[in-house]
Each structure stands twice: as C-alpha cells, then as structure tokens.
Amino acid sequence: MKIKIVSTSDVHGYIYPTNFTSRNDYHGLGYLKAGAVIEKIRRQAEQDGDIVLYVEDGDFVEGSPMTDYAYQTYNEKHYNLDLVKMVNHLQADVGILGNHEFNYGPNYLNPTLADRNYPILNANMQEGPDYHIIDAPYKIIEKNGVKIGVLGLTTQYIPHWEQPDHIKGWKFEPALKAAQKYVPKLRKKADIVVVAYHGGFERDLATGEPTESLTGENEGYQLLTEVPGIDALVTGHQHRQIAEVVNGIPTTQPGFRGEKVGCITLELNDQKQVIGSKAELIDTADADEEMWMNALTADWRNDVEDWLDQTLTTIDGDMKIHDPMQARLHGHAYLDLVNKVEMDATGADIAGTALFNDEVTGLGHEVTIRNVMNSYVYPNTLVVEKITGKDLKAALERCASFFEVGSDGKLSVSKDFSYPKMQLYNYDYYSGIDYTFDLRQPQGHRVTELKYHGKDVQDTDELNVAINQYRAVGGGDYPMYSMDKMVKQVENEMPRMIIAYLQKHPKIKAVQPTNLKIIMK
C-alpha cells in the first residue's frame, strides 16, 4: 500500500492561469490547474488501492488582484467565501494558517474560513480572543485502516511583520519546540506521522550550512534533523521548489501561485511501517482547469477584470521598466513615484522602496488599476522610523551588497540575495537623499557619498525614513530598522495609497532620478 501526501502552498489567491498583466494573459499556474492535478492523483490512487492525503499549507487568501478585490467588496459581493468552497471541493484533509492569512484581520478571516469542511491545525500558536480559526494542534485521520497523524505548524515570526491589532492576544512559540512536544504523542497514536509546516528551510539541505540569518523564521531543517519520528514533512512560505529526502524523511515545498503540487509517496508494508519513500513536484502548467471551480469563480473573475481596467491617470514620458537591473542601479521614475506616494502619505522626506521582481513593468501612458496591482503586489503598510545617519548608511551598505561584479566586469546579483532563492524584494531604492555606491570596494565599504538636503550625513544625525512594515521590523536582513524606532504608522495598504495618489494627480510627468550614482570602473 502507498500513501500519497499531496500539498498546495502559497497559492496567494492565484486561482486562474494568469498574472493579470492583461485581460487575456495566460500563465501555466493557478489553483484551478493544481486542483485538476490533485483530482488526477486521486483517481489513479483509487484504481491502485492507495491513500491520498491533501494538505493546503497556507497563504491562500491574500496576494492577487482577485483576493484584493474580494477583500475590498466582501460585505457586498462575498467572493471571499468562494475561497473556502474551492478547498472544500478538493476535499482537503487539513489546512494550515500561513502568515499572510492575518493580513486582513479577524473581521475578514473569521467569516472567510467559517464554512470550511476541513480542520485548521496548529500546535505552535495560541489564538487571540478575536479569532475562531484553529481547531486543534493535530488530527488523526484514518484511511483504509491506516491511522495518519497530521501535526500543524506555522512560522513563529509573524509578530515581526503583522499589524499588532491583527494578532492581538496571540502567542507564538518555535515550531521545533511544538514538534518535539507533539510528535512523540502522535507516534504512539498513529501509524504514520506527517508534519505540515507553513515555514521553510534555514539551512542547505545537503550540507547543513545556514542559508539565512537564524532568526527562527524558518525551522524546517531542524524539524528534519532534531525531531525523531516524522515520516513526511510538508513545507511552504519561502516559495521555493523543493522535493528531497533528508535524513530519511521526504519533504516538499511546491513553489507558489499553484505552479506545482507537492507529492510525497510513502510505501507501507503489511505492518503499516514505511519501507520506502520519495518526494516529487508535479507541474500544473499542462493540466486542464478544474471546471467546477471555474464555474464557481467566473463572475468573480469578470468583476475583477472590469475593476482592473479602470483608468486612473496618464503619464507624460516613459515610466516603463525596460531593464530591471538598470532600474536598481540608477533608480527609476516608477520607483521614485512609489517613494513620492510614501512621502505624501507619511510626511517624511526620505523614502525607500523595492522593485519586487522582474515581472514588474512599470507604468505606461494610460495607467489603470491593473497596472498598479501588477506593479505593487504586496499589501504593505507604511512605517516612519527615526534612525541615525549611521543606521541609514548601514541600510545602504546592505543594498550595495546586492550587486556583484565579476572578474570580467559583468554585473550580477550577489549570492546573499540569490541563494537559496532570488530575493529581489530585499534591495531598496531611496528618494530624498543623494548617495553613491562604489562597487569596486568590498561589501560594507561601498557607500562613498551620502547627502541629505545637500549636506553630508553624519553618523549622529537623526532622520525620518518611510519604509514598508516588512522592512521596518528588520525584514530582509536590515537589523538597523526596528519598531522601537517608529514615530508614525500608516495602516492603509500601499496599492490603495498609490491608486488614491494617482486619482488625485490626473497627469504625472515621468522624470528619471539622478540621486543614485554607481562607480564600477
């Protein structure tokens, strides 16, 4: 007998095979395709007499134009309820909370998840009084006479990102600590023990060497090596594509946006003991869409497409991003516009933002909501922190370390930002200051000029800087930022603030900024 543990994770509301760059855009991804893959696996397992366990591993209800529209209209349209209907239809055995599930607060999440027919498991978080989400730390599911114990875990790092009122009263502990407590209990009660973790890996799976700062955000490697008794580990959160067997334990992480379905296969003997295992990722690009869910969400998608096509303003000049690396090297009119929005919303006159990925195309002559939602893809809120000149220079040194110049003079993204996954969102461009990176110098010594209002910035100067809340808590390895330096917080999400700003400015001129200088030769 075989058990197939299939998983989706970090779907982020990408239901259809599109990234919404145009009304007719097509990309081979999305939950409709992932659903078709899961159904196919089930049909084959039924023929073979095998067991299928489906884990929805979190970050499902936020992250795309469809989920943003559902949030904005949930009191009127109730499209948010269709999210759970889809997971219900695919007969999820368990669900896990992702960190982004908290982004819209309890008044949205509670009704969104109310009618699910699957349990949400978590053993390392205790929910606050405003939420009614977590059903149990674990569940034992019996299928074909086999008892499968599933333990739910979520990254403990949520308080470092989330708005405090969204997690009021919640308590978080390390995933490792909870696993060490519960896995031995499950080992006594179940034939098979599965850990479903909305978190990823902090170390290289082959060498055990750290691949990031060991903050506790990701504890997957520790789960594989320090918790005896786990038969399979399902992960997510990092958007990586992983299918490996580590320390004898098969583990998967299926990317994001429904690009892959994780599939762990456990082979059992007659005593229900694991005698073989493998881990794989199944591509969804060529799968047909799951038609029942397509019919359920068709009106929702049509409404979203109409909403996205609303015109906001016109741009005089070129605000398109033709070369993302050049935009990061020299700044860009689009990035400068985002910083101006941050300044307008906060009153600060220094602001930083990131070109989150290379899919961001900037803004054309006629700007629609679609352009904004595809350019600024996160529901970030804003924070103003009072930092020293020394802090600002340290942040800029971190940014300067993004670039690596080869012996042949060619420029690339440094290992710190590209391994074990690409982290383009951790490089910031700043407006309101004049600064120079000398890329001939070693990392940590590349900021050779830093001026504010035409004067050299001193280490002891105090400066107000507007940044998103992820960066404000030190996210992306920026320890010079921390919430104890906060002087102001704006809780409206950035995409909405950009839309409102553009509506107030019917015509905007694109001007290439000149405040960042790069020395390479």
Detail the topology: elements first, then pairings:
Layout: E1 2-8, H1 31-48, E2 51-56, H2 65-72, H3 80-89, E3 94-95, H4 106-112, E4 125-126, E5 138-143, E6 146-154, E7 171-172, H5 175-189, E8 192-198, H6 220-226, E9 232-234, E10 241-246, E11 249-254, E12 260-268, E13 274-283, H7 291-308, E14 311-316, E15 319-320, H8 324-330, H9 333-346, E16 351-354, E17 362-363, E18 366-368, H10 369-375, E19 382-388, H11 389-400, E20 403-405, E21 411-413, H12 415-418, E22 428-431, E23 434-438, E24 447-452, E25 455-456, E26 462-468, H13 469-472, E27 486-490, H14 494-504, E28 507-509, E29 516-519
Parallel strand pairs: 1-2, 2-3, 6-8, 8-9, 9-11, 14-28, 23-29
Antiparallel strand pairs: 1-12, 4-7, 5-6, 10-11, 12-13, 14-18, 15-17, 16-22, 19-26, 19-27, 20-21, 23-24, 24-25
Give structural notes.
This protein is α/β, with parallel strands linked by helices and 521 residues long. The protein has 2 domains: 2-304, Purple Acid Phosphatase, chain A, domain 2, CATH 3.60.21; 311-519, 5'-nucleotidase,  domain 2, CATH 3.90.780.10. The protein is 27% helix and 27% strand. The strands form 9 sheets. It has a 6-stranded mixed beta sheet, with helices on one face. A 5-stranded mixed beta sheet has the order 3-2-1-12-13, covered by helices on one side. The chain has a 4-stranded mixed beta sheet with strand order 25-24-23-29, with helices on one face. Strand 24 and strand 25 form a beta hairpin. Helix 2 (65-72) crosses helix 7 (291-308).
